Every structure is written in C-alpha cells, then in structure tokens.
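Bit of a strange request maybe. I'm writing a small parser for structure token strings and I need a real example to test against, not something I typed by hand. Could someone generate the tokens for this chain?
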Amino acid sequence: MVAQFEHKVVTSKLKMKGFDYGELETELNRLGLEGWETAGTVAPSFGAGQATEVVVILKRVRS
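Reply from user aminoacidic:
Good idea to test on real output. This should exercise your parser:
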C-alpha cells in the first residue's frame, strides 16, 4: 500500500523588526506534535530581492 499524505502551508510575514522566528518555531513544534513534518521551504522575494515571507510546506501521513 502506498502512503497517502496531506499537506499544510505555514507562512511567516516580514514585520517591522524582521521575521519572528521564535513564533514560527513554536508553531512548527506544535504542529510536529500533531504528526506534521517539514517537506520544504520557500522564501519568495520581490524587487531588490528581499524576502517578504517565509513559507514552510508540511506533510503528514493521512490517517
């Protein structure tokens, strides 16, 4: 039997003082307890190349 996955996308937007990595870490740890694991990340950028958000793609085995 082939495993079937479900996916979730979590984003962290750029704020006045930068990214809140502590908040993102807390959210990822919470989701990890629910069986989610990171499958990839993206940091889209615009204009001069500054990232405006961090995107984390998560997956878990569908139950």
